[in-house]
């Protein structure tokens, strides 16, 4: 049905950023021939114009349909304005009808703050987009930077969405199929009421915990299953989770 790449947390401009990592991932994803690439924020480390400009040049090298949302680091130092100039929409949708899915991207960042918020306006936008996707029989994917459910192995919880409860209820009530996020740099999955929640690691920096390595996720969606794979910087691929596909 569909193969999707999910990358996050490039952190261009950080001392921990490694250009060779993102260039390698771009080549790997282009060679896979994925149906879409989803980028869930923190393209830059400080929101500086030159950082976001460099990040936008990496994004241009993807040969796939692309949906990008900002992270909290992208909204520092007027980065929210620079993002709109260089990368364009801060939220929106990507419909790949011939592969049967729709991605709904949300901006969960707040200028110069680390915590996230979706807000009522975007919540209404998301609900309407999910309802329309359901009418068309499309697999519904939500993408945002901040995690909605706390992620294990990430220490004390400080930066979850301030309106996480309301957004979680909207997702469950409208039967979202897959929710993608980044922010914590730790790959993990949860399933709540048949909605799958998957976070990605950092794709091109060494802002890591323990022995974790830079990585990105790929999601293979077929008639029966949602298969999530972890792709590490050393070229290895490991199963992360496999769930039943209820959108059949």
Automatic annotation (TrEMBL):
Q: Where is the Calcineurin-like phosphoesterase domain?
A: 4-187
Q: GO terms for molecular function, please?
A: hydrolase activity; metal ion binding
- Alphabetical keyword list: Hydrolase, Iron, Metal-binding
Q: Which residues form a coiled coil?
A: none
Q: Does the keyword tRNA-binding apply?
A: no
In the record, the note on similarity to other proteins reads: Belongs to the cyclic nucleotide phosphodiesterase class-III family.
InterPro entries reported in the protein's UniProt record: Calcineurin-like_PHP (IPR004843), CNP_phosphodiesterase-III (IPR050884), Metallo-depent_PP-like (IPR029052)
Protein's UniProt name: Metallophosphoesterase
Task: Show the CDD domains listed in the entry.
Answer: MPP_1
Q: Whose protein is this, by species?
A: Methanobacterium formicicum (strain DSM 3637 / PP1)
Q: Which Pfam families match?
A: Metallophos (PF00149)
């Amino acid at each position: 049905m569909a193969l999707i790449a999910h990358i996050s947390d490039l952190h261009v401009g950080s001392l921990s950023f490694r250009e060779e990592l993102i260039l390698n991932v771009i080549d790997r994803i282009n060679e896979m021939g994925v149906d879409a690439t989803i980028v869930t924020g923190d393209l830059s480390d400080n929101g500086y114009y030159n950082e976001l400009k460099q990040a936008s040049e990496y994004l241009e090298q993807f040969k796939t349909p692309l949906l990008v949302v900002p992270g909290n680091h992208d909204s520092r130092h007027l980065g929210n304005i620079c993002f709109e100039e260089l990368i364009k929409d801060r939220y929106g949708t990507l419909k790949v009808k011939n592969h049967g899915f729709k991605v709904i991207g949300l901006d969960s960042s707040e200028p110069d703050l680390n915590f996230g918020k979706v807000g009522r306006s975007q919540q209404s936008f998301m609900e309407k987009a999910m309802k329309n996707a359901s009418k068309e029989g499309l697999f519904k994917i939500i993408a945002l930077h901040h995690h909605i459910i706390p992620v294990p192995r990430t220490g004390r919880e400080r930066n979850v969405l301030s309106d996480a409860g309301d957004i979680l209820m909207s997702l469950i009530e409208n039967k979202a199929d897959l929710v993608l996020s980044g922010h914590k740099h730790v790959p993990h999955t949860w399933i709540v009421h048949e909605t799958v929640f998957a976070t990605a690691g950092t794709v091109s920096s060494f802002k890591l915990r323990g022995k974790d390595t830079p990585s990105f996720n790929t999601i293979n969606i077929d008639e029966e299953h949602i298969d999530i794979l972890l792709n590490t910087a050393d070229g290895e691929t490991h199963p992360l989770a496999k769930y039943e596909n209820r959108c059949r």
